[in-house]
Design a protein that fits this description.
The chain has about 190 residues and is an alpha+beta fold. The protein is built from six helices and nine strands; from the N terminus they run E-E-H-H-H-E-E-E-H-E-H-E-E-H-E. The chain has a five-stranded antiparallel beta sheet, with helices on both faces. Strands 6-8-7-9 form a four-stranded antiparallel beta sheet. A hairpin with a 3-residue loop joins strand 1 and strand 2. The termini are far apart.
């Protein structure tokens, strides 16, 4: 697991998750609207949330998992993750009452700076076509749309069309991460407006 530093922005502290964050994570992930586009089911109780905390956020598998905390408190109100696999997938979630304030963008910008300093060559991110607000965050971060693909999404077992965005951090702007394109037979390039 990578050492997770504490990052600070104007409004936020981004820190490693701690074993005491189960309740805050439960409050975030149990909200069905927040969870709708996340790759996991809402936890049914605190014990399930604590298990997710141990398995997904305390053990990052070579990636990074940052708790987003407002400077006024040290409780996670969201997260930013970067997977440790070849996709280097950027993921994020935020409590609903804090949406539309630029918090996720602010947090992700700071994480992207760290990834660049850490010589990570690129990041990818995907969003469900029914979640265009997430795509707007990706665009604000400087990510570029590359392609779309259809997947039977697990563990929710639902068909989803994802849009894949990429940010090359090492100056190789023509690089495209093709693993999703190659893995999923239905793939295409959309005309993205804006």
């Amino acid at each position: 697991m990578n050492a997770i530093p504490i990052l600070k922005t104007r409004r936020l502290n981004l820190r490693p998750f701690s074993p005491d964050d189960g309740e805050a994570l439960f409050d975030l992930l149990k909200d069905e609207e927040v969870n709708r586009f996340l790759p996991l089911f809402p936890p049914k109780n605190l014990a399930e949330a604590e298990k997710l905390l141990r398995e997904r956020y305390l053990k990052s598998g070579g990636g990074y998992a940052f708790a987003i905390c407002l400077k006024s408190q040290n409780l996670p109100v969201g997260y930013v993750t970067v997977s440790g696999d070849e996709s280097r997938d950027l993921g994020y979630a935020l409590r609903k009452e804090l949406w539309h304030r630029g918090i996720v963008t602010e947090a992700c910008q700071e994480v992207i700076k760290l990834m660049k300093e850490s010589a990570i060559p690129y990041l990818t991110a995907t969003h469900d076509v029914h979640n265009p607000k997430s795509g707007e965050v990706m665009k604000r971060l400087g990510m570029v749309y590359r392609y779309s693909y259809e997947e039977q999404w697990q563990p929710k077992d639902i068909p989803v069309t994802f849009r894949m965005y990429q940010l090359n951090l090492d100056g190789q702007n023509d690089r495209v991460f093709l693993q999703y394109w190659e893995r999923h037979p239905v793939h295409f390039v959309e005309e993205i407006v804006g």
